[in-house]
RNA sequence: GGAGGGCUGGCUGAGCGGCCGAAAGCGACGGUCUUGAAAACCGUUAGGGCGGUGUCCCCGUCCUCAAGGGUUCGAAUCCCUUGCCCUCCGCCA
């Protein structure tokens, strides 16, 4: 939710942001008009209510005729107050409906446009030239071929048990995922993040508060019998953790590294990435989440990005960093950086991390505030970023494959795999 | 699943339907005392909306005692509904 005070004080800033996002600019003026109406209705109600309270106090002290007269006046006032309150409430609801549809204020420098208008900030690492290494006839294996050779991924049985977009990770697949996530959480802990294992079922108000019931409502699994939602990321639980709290962020931000399973319906992506485990209904993720003061938010965003990049470098993946365009930010983010790893089998980049600076947008709706040094309260800023996910296995298998179908294990992960240096194909028996 | 109990300020915990946004204690913060600290003593201490003058300090007013309805001139206090928490029993792990 955007700040109404900014909307009133600098409507042109908000309009410009809406324009950059390609969103409806007229919402700004609609909100301003409704705000005007709401404040007028509120003043009317308050005036009447103040009189009612004052007369009410008089009733208690008065007696006889005087009391009767006051009671008569109070009776008519009671109805007027009730009506005025209904007016003010209705105006507030209408205003809320409109302001909820306005996206977060985009930060200066974010590229305009939609999904394809991102700006590439840098490339790190170099994609391998398999033809040069193994000869022109070498056929690059995709992650599913490799995963099956290694006895690491079984999508057929995943489908048998749970349907399309489900899978089993087994053998070195299971070990590799645990190694990756453990390494990620350890790196985050060393950087000062508190490790957390979060709930994955949350109440409606938390899901709504984090903004995931808006445009992305179709993506979310709902457990009907209990009116709960399965989270698509631990960001939901981590943001909800301090809802309606006033935090002391004066000495340091609150930093968490949440480990959770994530669930996504992938409604709307029929036929897209259907092979393997690129796009699945269930996966695991270590997510960075920071509560900080709004002044520090942009610097923290750079820190999160730097940590993500360190993790990508630990597992030796070639990647690029993009500054996501305004129209592709989603309503909460004021800026978003994605890291995309090279995917040899498809000759394209695949998103592995995404870090968003939500400034005060998410925190305002969740009632997350901080106590400033001068003792005042103000809305905190929240940021999140991906430290590692199951999807990383896709890029790791493909980029680290060798001619015989074995897969090189990055040195940084070996401590988590008992020193294992190479994942080697199993014979047919390994899968059966 | 069955039976009870309960939701009040950072915490504990009072609160006859009418100066109750709320006693008291703890904690926190400031001060006195002290070489310093502790103790003691004094003081301050919920959040938010709107308006005003002001604009690094205030003033007025309204809302909030789990949420939403209702009764009443007036609700933290009475009634209803919902949610959540706790205890005991049963069942399952």
From TrEMBL:
Q: Name one GO molecular function term.
A: ATP binding
Residues engaged in binding ATP? 264-266, 280-283, 351-354
- Supply the EC number(s): 6.1.1.11
* GO BP field: selenocysteine biosynthetic process; seryl-tRNA aminoacylation
Q: Which reaction does it catalyse?
A: tRNA(Ser) + L-serine + ATP = L-seryl-tRNA(Ser) + AMP + diphosphate + H(+); tRNA(Sec) + L-serine + ATP = L-seryl-tRNA(Sec) + AMP + diphosphate + H(+)
Please report the stretch or stretches of sequence annotated as the Aminoacyl-transfer RNA synthetases class-II family profile domain.
142-410
Q: Where would you say this protein principally sits, based on its record? A: cytoplasm
Which UniProt key words apply to this protein?
Answer: Aminoacyl-tRNA synthetase, ATP-binding, Coiled coil, Cytoplasm, Ligase, Nucleotide-binding, Protein biosynthesis
InterPro entries referenced in this protein's UniProt entry, alphabetically:
aa-tRNA-synt_IIb, aa-tRNA-synth_II, aa-tRNA-synth_II/BPL/LPL, Ser-tRNA-ligase_type_1, Ser-tRNA-synth_1_N, SerRS_1_N_sf, SerRS_core, tRNA-bd_arm
Q: In which pathway does it act?
A: Aminoacyl-tRNA biosynthesis; selenocysteinyl-tRNA(Sec) biosynthesis; L-seryl-tRNA(Sec) from L-serine and tRNA(Sec): step 1/1
**Would the keyword Nuclease be found if you checked this record's keyword annotation?**
no
Q: Which Pfam families match?
A: Seryl_tRNA_N (PF02403), tRNA-synt_2b (PF00587)
Localization terms from the record: Cytoplasm
Q: What does this protein do?
A: Catalyzes the attachment of serine to tRNA(Ser). Is also able to aminoacylate tRNA(Sec) with serine, to form the misacylated tRNA L-seryl-tRNA(Sec), which will be further converted into selenocysteinyl-tRNA(Sec).
UniProt domain comment: Consists of two distinct domains, a catalytic core and a N-terminal extension that is involved in tRNA binding.
Family annotation (HAMAP family): Ser_tRNA_synth_type1
UniProt name for this protein: Serine--tRNA ligase
Record organism: Actinotalea fermentans
């Amino acid at each position: 939710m955007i700040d109404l005070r900014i909307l009133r004080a600098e409507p042109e800033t908000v309009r410009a942001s809406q324009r950059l996002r390609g969103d409806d600019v007229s919402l700004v003026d609609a909100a301003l008009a409704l705000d005007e109406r709401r404040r007028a209705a509120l003043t009317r109600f308050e005036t009447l209510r103040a009189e009612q309270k004052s007369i009410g106090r008089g009733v208690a002290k008065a007696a006889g005729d005087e009391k009767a007269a006051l009671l008569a006046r109070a009776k008519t006032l009671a109805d007027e107050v009730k009506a005025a309150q209904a007016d003010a409430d209705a105006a507030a609801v209408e205003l809320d409906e409109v302001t909820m549809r306005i996206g977060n204020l985009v930060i200066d420098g974010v590229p305009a446009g939609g999904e394809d208008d991102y700006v590439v900030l840098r490339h790190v690492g170099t994609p391998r030239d398999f033809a040069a290494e193994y000869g022109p006839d070498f056929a690059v294996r995709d992650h599913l071929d490799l995963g099956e050779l290694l006895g690491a991924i079984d999508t057929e049985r995943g489908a048998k048990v749970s349907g399309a977009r489900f899978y089993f990770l087994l053998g070195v697949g299971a070990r590799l995922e645990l190694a990756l996530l453990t390494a990620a959480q350890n790196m985050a802990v060393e950087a000062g993040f508190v490790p957390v294992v979060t709930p994955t079922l949350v109440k409606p108000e938390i899901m709504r508060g984090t903004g995931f019931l808006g445009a992305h409502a179709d993506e979310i699994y709902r457990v009907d019998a209990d009116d709960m939602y399965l989270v698509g990321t631990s960001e939901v639980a981590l943001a909800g953790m301090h809802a309606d709290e006033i935090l002391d962020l004066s000495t340091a931000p609150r930093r968490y590294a949440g480990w959770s399973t994530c669930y996504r319906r992938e409604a709307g992506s029929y036929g897209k990435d259907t092979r393997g485990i690129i796009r699945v209904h269930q996966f695991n993720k270590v997510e960075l989440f920071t509560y900080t003061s709004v002044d520090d938010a942009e610097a923290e965003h750079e820190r999160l990005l730097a940590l993500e990049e360190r993790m990508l470098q630990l597992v030796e993946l070639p990647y690029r960093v993009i500054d996501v365009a305004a129209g592709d930010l989603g309503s909460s983010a004021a800026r978003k950086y994605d890291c995309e790893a090279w995917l040899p089998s498809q000759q394209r980049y695949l998103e592995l991390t995404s870090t968003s600076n939500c400034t005060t947008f998410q925190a305002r709706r969740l009632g997350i505030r901080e106590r400033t040094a001068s003792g005042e309260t103000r809305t905190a800023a929240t940021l999140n970023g991906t430290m590692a996910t199951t999807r990383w296995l896709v890029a790791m298998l493909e980029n680290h494959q060798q001619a015989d179908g074995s897969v090189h294990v990055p040195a940084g992960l070996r401590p988590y795999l008992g020193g294992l240096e190479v994942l080697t194909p199993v014979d047919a028996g390994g899968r059966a």
